Amino acid sequence: MKKNTRTAFIRHMLENERSIEPSPEFSYKALIKSRQDYDEMYHRSIEEPEAFWAQMAETHIDWFKPWDAVEEFDFESDNPYVRYFRGGELNVSYNCLDRHLDGPRRNKAALIWQGEPNEEVDVYTYQRLHREVCKAANMLKRLGVKRGDRVVLYLPMVPQLAISMLACARIGAIHCVVFSGLSAEALKDRIVDSGAKVVITSNYGYRSGKILHLKDICDKALDMSPGVEACVVVRRIEKRTDMKVDRDVWWDDQMAAESPHCEPENMESNDPLFILYTSGSTAKPKGILHGTGGYLLYATLTMKYVFDLKETDIYWCTADAGWITGHSYLVYGPLSNGATSLMFEGVPNYPKPDRYWDVVEKFGVNILYTAPTAVRSMMKDGEQWVNNHDISTLRLLGSVGEPITSKAWLWYYSAVGQGRCPIADTWWQTETGGVMITTIPGAVDMKPGSAALPFFGISPRVIGSDGDDTAPNEGGSLVISRPWPGMMLGVYNNPEAFKNVYFPMPGFYLTGDGAYRDEDGYFWITGRIDDVMNVSGHRIGTAEVESALVSVLQVAEAAVVGYPHPVKGEGIYAYVTVKEGTVINDDLRAELCNHVRANIGPIATPDVIHFASALPKTRSGKIMRRILRKIAAQDTENLCDISTLSEPSVVNDLIQETKRMS
Ligand code: PRX
């Protein structure tokens, strides 16, 4: 689309709020070709869920032993639970690898790896990946890892990360991937909470041309984690690395000695596959526990239908495997379907803002799945970076992680997709395992900014504080009223949290998101309604940042809220009061930021630190975050009722302080 045409198109769409039909050419070739096909399959999945999931599980997954019961759950009692395919036995790595080795897929690229340095590329066929996974599985066994043991993976985006995940799955160990941008303190917390026996890391990593000292960070974490028996180190960069005798071993040395044959363990469908920590409303991240059969089926099925997957597609999910998107749509979903998944170590804007388009052109990518924060930053850099590349191989675009505004959606659609590629906006969460609400490409009309309709088997509702469904276009709390196979099994080490956080109201899984449903039944997600921020698609708990801030000696109190940010979506705004006698200056501000970085990681660094004289509190001493959020957003026209505050004048002081700061 030419720039002028595109600008006119975006303006027209924004003014008229029209929906966009998928192109007939796309629909004709799509797996789900029409709204009618979608409706029929959706209704069947809701009306006869057991028959639907049984049929899907039989046709999409290879089982070693059939199940005894398809679906068992309780959303009502004090002990909510969900189980799928009880008694069924399978192995996830078998489904992702072995079953593709008999036919032509054996020599197909399973994983294409593009390193941050452009010249570093590697391709793993299914056969090669299978051999590497078997060797890694044998290595883990030799290091004493047994079925049910936890293994922490603190790795950058290198093939060894996917290999390690699959190796754990092969022997029934539970992997716990920790995003390589998190700090030593955060890594230690996850190692200790999961009780990991072995940690796999790499000596260094690349990020935007800089070298990350991952082994040093890992060493600090391991000094505080006495339970870890061995640390395997991937040699990412040939550079001096301190290795601790009797604990550290090199990945390549170990792998060289291992056999490329390893029988997969027979896992029961509800045996845990992985733990992934995520932020909630408390200072301590929760270990979300996912199972085997249900999770794999859900990742496989959503991958196939949401991305309209074809045998020859080159599919690229830009998410880091340290997050759930990387688990379900970089590793398990694509490989279970026998697809070609591209793994990219770099970032969108290094060395130049056209890195994504360079990669799309180089590999002829057909499906691109990325986040609104990347779209916004590319939109800011300007479309000339896109236009300099031939990206005509793209046929489908995906979005995940945060609400995408209609403006960013339309830019993505017209500047990247050239008005040709449908966009699947996908709403889901770490806890849901896979996509829950989406625009099934080719089948349903797209409304820019709306995640559209539920995936098969999903029954979302928007309810008000009375528990009743809200009227069309009226906001409320997004809940899910039936289970689905990708649903988390529980919270590791914290069974009460499963009930308290997700089932405070009997009968519904509470998502923590706000939403409304329009007159056509389309869902519009408005963002978190709990104390969780979404910063560049990263989920960060306000309580986590507050707890890091108050651990600084000079800090008396801290209250953290999100505020609208043009590129990050939400920025982090920290109100801090200091102890008497403390000198407030830029050094203290820097110290606070450094402290948060060291406690959580750079992604949690506050964008604004507001040294406040006092914080607004109710008479019972509760901080009024609603007011703090409005002040941070500079939306102080309508502050609602402040009469319940113990000292209403505090609010005015804060507003004046904000004015002085800006
Ligand atoms: O607020 C929603 C937002 O991201 C949260 C889940 O974050 P996380 O568990 O880290 O998983 C991210 C990747 C699935 C949700 O509660 N979110 C995710 N996708 C969307 C979204 N908000 C709006 N639209 C989306 N497509």
TrEMBL record:
Obligatory cofactor(s): Mg(2+)
Family stated for the protein in its record: Belongs to the ATP-dependent AMP-binding enzyme family.
Gene: acsA
Binding site for CoA: T325, N349, S536, R597
Catalysed reactions, semicolon-separated: acetate + ATP + CoA = acetyl-CoA + AMP + diphosphate
PTM note: Acetylated. Deacetylation by the SIR2-homolog deacetylase activates the enzyme.
Domain AMP-binding enzyme C-terminal: residue ranges: 544-622
Domain called AMP-dependent synthetase/ligase: residue spans: 106-491
Enzyme kind, highest EC tier: ligase
PANTHER family registered for this protein in UniProt: ACETYL-COENZYME A SYNTHETASE, ACETYL-COENZYME A SYNTHETASE 1
Binding site for Mg(2+): V550, V555
Residues where ATP binds: G401, E402, P403, D425, T426, W427, W428, Q429, T430, D513, R528, R539
NCBIfam families, A to Z: Ac_CoA_lig_AcsA, PRK00174.1
Function: Catalyzes the conversion of acetate into acetyl-CoA (AcCoA), an essential intermediate at the junction of anabolic and catabolic pathways. AcsA undergoes a two-step reaction. In the first half reaction, AcsA combines acetate with ATP to form acetyl-adenylate (AcAMP) intermediate. In the second half reaction, it can then transfer the acetyl group from AcAMP to the sulfhydryl group of CoA, forming the product AcCoA.
Protein name: Acetyl-coenzyme A synthetase
Transmembrane segments: 151-173
Limits of the Acetyl-coenzyme A synthetase N-terminal domain: 38-96
Keywords of this entry: Acetylation, ATP-binding, Ligase, Magnesium, Membrane, Metal-binding, Nucleotide-binding, Transmembrane, Transmembrane helix
The organism's taxonomic lineage, starting at the top: Bacteria, Bacillati, Actinomycetota, Coriobacteriia, Eggerthellales
